What we know:
The chain is mainly alpha-helical. It has helices at about 5, 10-25, 40-55, 60-75, 80-95, 100-110, 115. Helix 2 crosses helix 3 (about 40-55). The chain is globular. The model has no long low-confidence stretch (mean pLDDT about 90). The site of protoporphyrin IX containing FE (HEM) has 20 residues, from helix 3, helix 4 and helix 5.
Amino acid sequence: SSLYEKIGxxxxxxxAVDIFYRKVxxxxxIKHFFDGVDMDKQAAKQKAFLTMAFGGPHNYTGEDMRKGHxxxxxxxxxxxxxxxxxxxxxxxxxxxxxxxxLIAQAAAIAESTRNDVLGK
Length: 120
Ligand code: HEM
């Protein structure tokens, strides 16, 4: 079965969204990037983000990731912020008792978007 199914599918994504969202908005290194972002859009974004990281169905391309974060890159988004998001992702999955090898697979998928997200 897919990584998405192994981690727990839609139910696991929904549980992870809550925990991840709270971590990111508490994190002084990155929370300012979310100022003024619409809450509904935010929830959908978090869900899309985690679905992607779980290797599940998603509708985003690398080009979408580039466009979706271009305004943030203009405001200074860089590797250190990307690393902070990766850290929050790992901590979230650990909190949900996802096994380490599946966390590593999810991290690798998120990592594969780095250059697009950072506009490199
Ligand atoms: C938007 C995924 C990294 C901040 C989005 C969207 C997705 C996404 C799917 C929604 C795009 C749309 O439909 O408009 C990802 C993935 C990442 C990543 C897979 C790789 C780890 C980051 C990082 C930050 C960030 C490092 C900042 C620390 C945001 C913000 C939005 C957004 C603030 C909303 C932009 C807006 O609505 O104005 N991201 N993201 N993302 N992302 Fe990311």
